[in-house]
Amino acid sequence: MGGWSCRARHGPRSHHRPWTDAVERPTSSPFVLDVHDLDRRPGTMRHLRQTVPAPVDLGTVVIGVPTGDDLDLDLRLESVMEGILVSGTVRARAVGECVRCLEEVVEDVDAGLQQLYAYPERAQAAAEDGDEEDVPVLEADHVDIETAVRDAVIPTLSFRPLCTPDCPGLCPECGARLAEAGPDHTHETIDPRWADLGRVFDEKES
Q1: Whether residue 125 sits in one domain with residue 49
Q2: pLDDT tens-place string over residues 78-112
Q3: What are 105's strand-pairing partners?
């Protein structure tokens, strides 16, 4: 993999927050993978299939993978000249709300993932050369793929999830789901001026 550039970054980040330095990697995290068997051995690779619990906030405000739900990882870890290349797929089940009627929406997630984790000296050399690309750094023979998983999954989620493509939404008068209420669902509407006149007559009669 020639012609790459990077700016070293360390530690996990949120999908919505900038990178922050980490003094020590949380090796107990299911997203931290031991790659010592691949270190400095370009051309060697290993396949990894495992199920891990979804981290907090894996989604958007309208849809996401519930915390603790299964994430099925099917990955290839490959040693290259620059570091460790992780590629593969992430599969899960996302749950959200229809933006029209608030009914639950469930989507299957099948996201592609590819991330290079640079050797520290390679990242340092690139940074000294003025390269600005943000690439995570291999630390103590481990790679933390949580951010890569977030960056793979979140863009695949629906921006405006719908229970059905033609969902009619909610009744503006009573809030009923129009798909359940049926085409005959109506409300009697009275012109406010006539309503005021009716109250006047009611007061006179009383």
Answers
A1: yes
A2: 999 989 999 999 999 999 999 999 999 999 999 99
A3: 96
DSSP-assigned beta bridge partners for residue 88: 75, 113
Q: Which of 126, 71, 61 is nearest to 99 (CA)?
A: 61
Neighbours of 197 (CB within 10 A): 11
Residue at 165 is within a domain: no
Residue 141 backbone zone (phi > 0: left; psi -120 to 50: alpha; other: beta): left
Each residue of 37-87: pLDDT tens digit?
A: 987 888 999 999 999 999 999 999 999 999 999 999 999 999 999 899 999
- For the chain, the farthest-separated pair of C-alpha atoms sits apart, in whole angstroms, at 96
Range of the domain at 145: 7-156
Neighbours of 80 (CB within 10 A): 19
Q: Domains in the chain: how many in total?
A: 2
Q: What is the pLDDT of residues 129-145, one digit of tens each?
A: 666 567 888 888 899 99
Interatomic CA distance for residues 40 and 3, integer angstroms: 19
